[in-house]
Amino acid sequence: MKITVSHQEAMRFEAKTEKSSFIIDCPQISPIEYFLSGIIACSATDVVMLPKQQGFEVTNLQVAGEVVRNESAPKKFNTLHLEYRFDSNADDTLAARWVMASLETYCSTINTIRDSTAITYTIIHNGNTIRENETMISGGGSAVDFGSLQGCNA
Questions:
Q1: Digit-coded pLDDT (tens) for 83-102
Q2: CATH superfamily of 31-135
Q3: Is 124 within 8 Å of 84 (Cβ atoms)?
């Protein structure tokens, strides 16, 4: 993967990927907000794709992320809490497995920060809280093989 970022004017930058480009307009949206958005979107795509591959459908998906950062530079993420809200035609156990598979195996961005950031999550499925403030296992990924996933490869 290769991305090139070029200064345009003032605090506007153009990011060019191998597939497309987009404008980063600081301070409208800061690079750290883009970073957190990428983390969330990575996991959200998994929570849509995994059920689809198994013949289920996820609707009304919202994933919110909240971080606590160091107060001084470098302002790294200390903690990250993700809240998954969605409906599906699956039971709660399977819905939780989709989120956990994303967190523990598939989501490259989460797995990039997992050794240095304490990550917790909450899952609200079909209006019911099925996991609350669960701690993600840190470091090393999961030994469970969930197979391959076709989707946003990054």
A1: 999 999 999 999 999 999 99
A2: K homology (KH) domain (3.30.300.20)
A3: yes
